[in-house]
């Protein structure tokens, strides 16, 4: 599998936030490879918070707008 497009996208995202203050967070860690990649490119003294449910996401409840974001149906680039 060619990971170059994904790595390029990650590099673009990291470049877009490099001048912001604060820590980093990765939501949905899986094996930690992306976390390692991010940590190697962060400013010294910056923290990287790793968040994962280890069980997946719950189904939408009455408090969620399930009509806007259907679980696993709408690609992230189409969110508004």
Note down, in words, how this protein is organized:
By secondary structure, this protein is α+β, with helices and mostly antiparallel strands. It has a domain at 1-55. It has helices at 4-17, 33-39, and strands spanning 24-27, 48-51. Strands 1-2 form a two-stranded parallel ribbon.
Keywords for this entry:
single chain, about 80 residues, alpha+beta, 2 strands
H and E order: HEHE
- Describe the strand arrangement of the main beta sheet, using strand numbers: 1-2
In total, the number of strands is 2
Regions with little confidence, pLDDT below 50 for 5+ residues: none
Overall body shape: extended
Structural class label? alpha+beta
N-to-C span: 30 Å
**What's the number of helices?**
2
Helix content: 25-40%
Report strand %: 5-15%
Average pLDDT number: 80
Characterize the largest beta sheet: strand count, sense, and whether it forms a barrel.
Answer: 2 strands, parallel
Radius of gyration: 15 Å
Topology (elements, then pairings):
Layout: H1 4-17, E1 24-27, H2 33-39, E2 48-51
Parallel strand pairs: 1-2
Briefly say what this structure is.
This protein is of the alpha+beta class. The protein has helices spanning 4-17, 33-39, and strands at 24-27, 48-51.
